[in-house]
Amino acid sequence: MRKENDSKVTEFVLLGLSSSWELQLFLVFMFSSFYVAIILGNLLIMVTVRADVHLLQSPMYYFLGHLSFIDLCLSCVTVPKALAGFLPQGKTISFSGCLAQIYFLHFLGASEMFLLTVMAYDRYVAICDPLHYLIVMNHRLCLQLVLACWCGGFIHSITQVILVIQLPFCGPNELDNFYCDVPQVIKLACMNTYLVEVLMVSNSGLLSLICFLVLLFSYAVILITLRTRLHRRQSKALSTCASHVTVVSLIFVPCVFIYLRPFWSFSVDKVFSVFYTVITPMLNPFIYTLRNTDMKTAMKKLIKNHVPFCCLVKG
User: Residue 91 needs a FRET pair 20 to 30 A away by CA distance; which of 62, 259, 295, 307 works?
Assistant: First the structure.
C-alpha cells in the first residue's frame, strides 16, 4: 500500500470474485464471452434502429437505441477492469481511477433507470391513449426526455463522487469486489461513516426503489387496461410490456438489494453485482429482439442488404 505523507491512500486493491485459480480461468472465459456478446448485441440494436427509418421515427425504438448505448458503455466501465483483475498486476486501481469508475457507473446506471421509467411512460401512452400517441410522444418531447435522463444521471453520480472524495482514507485499501463502488469504498474510510451511509442510501437506494415502484405501478395500469382489449394488437403490446418488465426486474432488484440497506457485506453481493453490470447488459438485446417482430424484420433486412456486399468485397 502506497501513501502520501503516510496518511493518504493513493490506490486500492480489488480482491475480485475468487482467489481460486481454476475458478478464475472459468471466469475469464465467461466474462470474455459475455463482453463480446454485450458489444455485438447492443451494437446490432443501435445500428438496426439507426438504419431503419421506421424504427428511428418510433419513440419506443428511439429509446431502445439509447438503452443499448448505455448498456454498452456500462459494460465498458466494469468488465475490462474485471478481466484485468484476473492478472496479478491488474488488481490495483488508483484512487482517481476508482472515483472515475464510481462516477461513470452511477452516471450510466441512474441514466438507465430514468430511461426505463421514460420507456414505461411511452408504453402507457401508446396503450392507454393510442389516438394521441404520436401527438404526445413527438420527437421534441422524446429528445427532451432523453436529455432529462442524462442530466438526472449526472446529478446523481456527481453527488456520489462529492460525498466519497471528502472521506479520509488512511488504513486498509482492499475492496472486496471486482470494481469500485460506493458501499465497499466508504467502509475503508478512517472516520465514522454513519451519516455518509445514510446519505448514500437516501440517494442510490431510494432512487432505485422509487423508480422501481413507479415502473411497477405503470405496468400494472397497462396490464389492467390490456385486460379489456384482447385482440391481436393488444397481444403484441402485452408481449412488449412483458419484455420491459423482465428488463426492469433484472436491473432494479439487484440495485435495491445492494443500495437500500446498511453497508455490511453479504455473500451474494458479488453475484448481484455481476447481474447488474454484466448479465443484464448482455440479456437486454435478446429480451428486446427475440419477441419483437419489428426488430427481427429490420435486422433481417439489414443483414440482407449488407452481408452480400461484405462477402463480395472480401471475395
Answer: 259
